[in-house]
User: Fold these one by one.
Assistant:
Number 1:
Amino acid sequence: LLFERADGTRFPGKLETSIIKGEENDEGIVVVIRDLTKQRELEEKLLEKEKLATLGMVVEGVAHEVRNPLNAIALAAQRLLMEFEVKKNEDEFKDFTGSIISESRRLDKIIDDFLELARTPREEPQIFQLGSLIEETATLSQLEAEQKGVQFTVDGNGPIDIFGVESELKKALVNMIANAISATPAGGEVRIVCSRDDESRQAVVRIIDSGEGITARNLDKIFHPYFTTKEGGTGLGLAITARVVADFNGTIDVESQPGQGTTFEIRLPLG
């Protein structure tokens, strides 16, 4: 059943009634409405994980079958380019073989990204320090920002322990920071703000850029696999990030307006 709150928002719930009797045999009824929002969210997360686990097994098998002929095609093109002498149309021959090699590599990268989206983490989760991870990630991204002329800063407020697979979160953060730098023009700014919300028992990571922003039409699509507005993009980066955050039992939200930048907020349970 769907119920409506005082503010007009709706939520799934369960209606329970009980009859009570007074001392003089008068009767009344007690109505209890249980909010099942959290339960439904948990059920959906579990179902999504089961789907991804099944998909991962299928994808690994398909990827193996695709990669074998793909590698053979790339190797054949490399041999043609290096070992055979062309007597006419040499430039055209080099362009064609070069395209075969580059497209084979691009397909191989797409297979890697799809495997990353579908597979479950291979490492055991453990407690790690979020601040140290963000500093390490920021160091990897600093040079990219400097080369583009983008100001890059990191703000934090003390030690924050997280439980999960550290390498998975690192990959997700590297991808998101790279997206933020890519979307920000020279002279702009990208900020990473890490904080601890003791009331909700969550760590909060905000990735803020002053870039081109995201249209309202695209905001609901950015975490969908294969949706991208970047030329040459696979559209799997943010889908993988959303999967990683879900594995941590966290949430990811985005606020953006065209021309005014974008803020991604990741919330993760404290370790």
Note: The chain has a mean pLDDT of 84.
Number 2:
Amino acid sequence: MAGAYPRLSDDEIATLARYGQHRRLTDEEVLFREGEPTRELLVILEGRVAVVTGYGLPDQQTIGVHGPRRFLGELALLGGQPAFVTAVAVESGEVLAVPVDRMPDLMGEDPRLGDTILRAYLVRRSLLIDIGAGLRIIGSRFSPETYRLREFCARNRVPNRIIDIEDDAGARTLVERFGLRVEDTPVVLAGTAALMRNPTERSLARALGLAPGPVGAPCADLLIVGAGPAGLAAAVYAASEGLSTVVVDAVAPGGQAGLPPKIENYLGSPAGIAGTELAERAVLQARKFGVRLDVPARAAEAAICVGDPVVVVGGGNSAGQAALYLARHATDVTLVIRHADPGRDMSRYLVEQILAHQDISVRTRTAVCGAQGDRGRLKKVRLRNEDGVEETIPAAAVFVFIGASPHTEWLAGQVPLDPEGFVLTGPDLRSARPGVFAAGDVRSGSVKRVSSAVGEGAVAVRFIHEFLRTETAAALSTDPISRPARHG
């Protein structure tokens, strides 16, 4: 992919040299190891370095070999995660090592160079995901627990691949190598050291640096529940203006915007921007300003559908984006829409791409009315149109996008909600809880678009400042020690 491994100019290397130090490189030296933290951006000045996945394991694979003027690492370096690959010298030489904590200063001095590095790291993350590098999840593809772990990795953009004990002869050998039994699966392997037996999303998130360790209840000026576009925008604006900010989410950063297809109607991105890239950039930006991000994950993902037909149900943007994404993996995608016009609730650019895609068929005025399968696996889906005509089509999975669920059960009785559970604001509000604000999809009547959510998140910060000023003034007026003396 273009931009993944650019060669740096003399001027760019000179800029980096002001933040790092030169280091000799010996043949077969391991610069960083899969499963272990990475703390330096490394620029190759002399010699060659191989980037390897599964280093030291029977299925070791060389991803690439790099020489002078290229830099190593990927998004894990900036995100505080363990490395998902190993870098080992295949020829002695010299590297320039720049500590990761100097990266903000570097990006401030030379934004263009900083963007070159960031863009390369984003593309490399996509490449690692595509080739199945990174974590190894050893287990049965039919196991709900294996599926749960793959869901976590897919939505949080963690490179991984499944080693399936059902039909991979090497899987059982690998399990036995670590003194385990098949009954112990699924297990997660990072390199040759980190091994977790059927971990929870929370424990896996902590091991990967996606969630902070247990530090007790954090004290902050602002707690943001939900790491979608609205939540991340609010976090960036609030933290950049000096508010200590904590973001929590039960799914993953990015919300609906974190889905892989391009967002082509986002202001300032004439060529479109991948939802994953938008989410990853927002997370890095939030962390730059000191936001504490606490995100485990749950989702649906497409890797289990490779080579199989699937059905997508829904007529909105989420359904359209899912259909386009799944078409990259599945043999056929059938998009089922209850009403007659795909353009009624879906952006025009998505409609045009879907109608032009040879692997996507659209069924309007149609609904799913049945399913068939055996041994716990879906085989076929039955559809019925408004005229009562039925047809049965093959399907290995059904993805349903027929309306967002706000997941606000925990707010019941605390803030006003509409009948569907969305938070009431503005003229619909009859009572309110001071200091609680709603932005983005969770707000009743919101426009379900990324740009709208970003705007609402930014605007919410202004109201938060007003609330904090009011609270501070009220506290001073009731405190006899802090209250100013009255004259006259």
Note: The CA atoms of residues 255 and 424 lie 20 Å apart.
Number 3:
Amino acid sequence: MAGSGDAHRPRTGGGVWMLPPWRRAPVLPFGQPAVLLAVIAAAAILACAAASAPLFLSSASSAALQRLIGNECPSAATASVKNHSTARNLPALDARVRPAMTGAGLAAPHLDALAADNFGLDGLGGPPVRVAYRADAVANLTHLPGAVGGTGVWLPKYVRDRLGVRPGAEVAVNGTPVRVAGYYPNFYDVPLPAYWCSYGFFVLPKVVSNDVPPPLVLASDPATFTRLVGSRPADYDWVSPVDSTGETVSRGYDVAGRQDAAYHAAGLPVPRDFGRTAGGTGQLPTLTDRAVLIRNGLRGPVLPIALGGTLLALLLVGAAGSYWADRRRAEVRLLSARGVGPGALAGKAVLELALPAALGTLLGAVLARWLVGRLGPSPDLDPSAYRQAAVVAGGGLLAGL
């Protein structure tokens, strides 16, 4: 009698897992192609449904950021350090800002400078002029005939017509004599080149009043700018180029962090007022925040749909498990009759289906990435999206098992 009771006692000890049915379990599904394909397909659908939400949201935010950048001037997607100071402080500021930006991991910057006040141009009867300096500005101007180049200032055609001063001669900007290096066409007479896009407010007629801004006197070098502006205030902008091709939110925030680090390293305050952050260069922090707002707005409709698809996919996984039970009914009954408990039987099922389910999960995650890349708003995704997709796909795999 004692031996008969022992024969039907459930076998739940650790020794069960070392018996042949459990040791061979991982390779058994490969002998049943129908079960194998059913589990792989169900797991792939589950992983695809679960992983698609974070991937799609990242794709949407990348597309939004790229669209926002495209609507701005090309210089908007740069890193910049801005400061308002007197012109005489420029050499000291330049010596602090340049190493601060390169030390923060940004590309070597170029300098833009614009006098805050208007100046009189001796002999010109009309509106005052605005003194400016931009690196490579002369190379991005159309030179009118007669230009001599070199150190000095470049004046628009409007000033030439009023003054009649030949290139190489001198004019006085607010009483300071300076050589005329050449003339360039009026900005409002020709299509504004991309290089000058961010200066449109300073060189093009106002939309409402059609008033023309003061003519722009372009200094050939920082020293000339400093000499002309003197102790007057000026706005300085050190601009570091950024490759915005395939821009994503994570890359935008990375540039924003480096930009803030450059401000702190240079000992300058980060501008927060709307006038300094609403346009011009260094707009990635603002544009990235807008893209994140768009992504957050999409969470409402995207996440419930993804959750519903995941729950339906879990039902498919359950159906695949039921299919396995039907195909292995005789073996399960035999093991149960020999005293194997439900825990050990469930463990055997997991061992058999784990590899096909893992393979299906991997295929589903790859499929989700491919679908989002081909059909989503943008193929460019944040690294965090891949991590989130892996987590939810792995959670789906555990739930399915």
Note: The radius of gyration is 35 Å.
